[in-house]
Amino acid sequence: MDTTIHFSAIVDDGAVLGEGTRVWHFAHVCAGARIGAGCSLGQNVFVGDDVVIGDNVKIQNNVSVYDAVTLEDNVFCGPSMVFTNVYNPRAAVTRKHEYRRTLVRCGATIGANATIVCGVTIGEHAFIGAGAVVTRDVPAFALMAGIPARQIGWISRFGERLSLPLTGNAEARCQHTKDLYILRDGTCMLSYSTSAGAWARFPEPAK
Length: 207
Prior knowledge:
- The chain is mainly β.
- It has strands at residues 4-5, 10-11, 16-17, 22-23, 28-29, 34-35, 40-41, 46-47, 51-53, 58-59, 64-65, 69-71, 76-77, 82-83, 102-104, 109-110, 115-116, 121-122, 127-128, 133-134, 142-145, 150-155, 161-162, 170-173, 180-184, 187-192.
- A hairpin with a 5-residue loop joins strand 22 and strand 23 (161-162).
């Protein structure tokens, strides 16, 4: 399956696009960008030179992925969400040498109109609510909301809220997949998956 590039989009020479990736109306992909297979870049998306995007990433309309941002596989970027790469920008001061790197790990979702302040890591399968402003690292499977964003719960890889406290030790199953999640000392882990083995990051719990 070849890539699909709309005639109004600009993909600079040197950019790498994986098989099956689609680039839609008025998008611009810079020469140094590395984009995996099966991705979708919506209308008016910008991808900078120093950007790495994994497989099956969905970037909705009006999103700019600036230099120093890495998106791992299966990341979802909602409409008009914002990445930054300079912490204290000034029009009269050049700070390109001060870019702070941002990493969005596998399976994470960033909701519409959310803002990601540069220099943070968003953990795998975390969920950033619409309009939230992320100013610090986000744990895996964390559900975040507000300005500044704070954790309000835990969420499964399927996108269902888990019945777990924010801290302490507990267990819960995703009601859709029946996957088991374990909270240990405030860290949430997918312990056992009833679905494809690729999701089983930890051994099956003892019977």
